[in-house]
Amino acid sequence: MSKTFTITVIQNVAKHRPEGYLEEVLSSGTVEGDKVTLTDEAYRILVAKYRALVKPGVGTELKALLSKVGITASHTCSCNTKAEIMNRQGIAWCEKNVETICDWLQEEATKRKLPFVRLAGKALIHMAIRRAKKGTNK
Question: What residue ranges do the domains of the chain occupy?
Answer without folding.
Answer: 2-51, 58-134
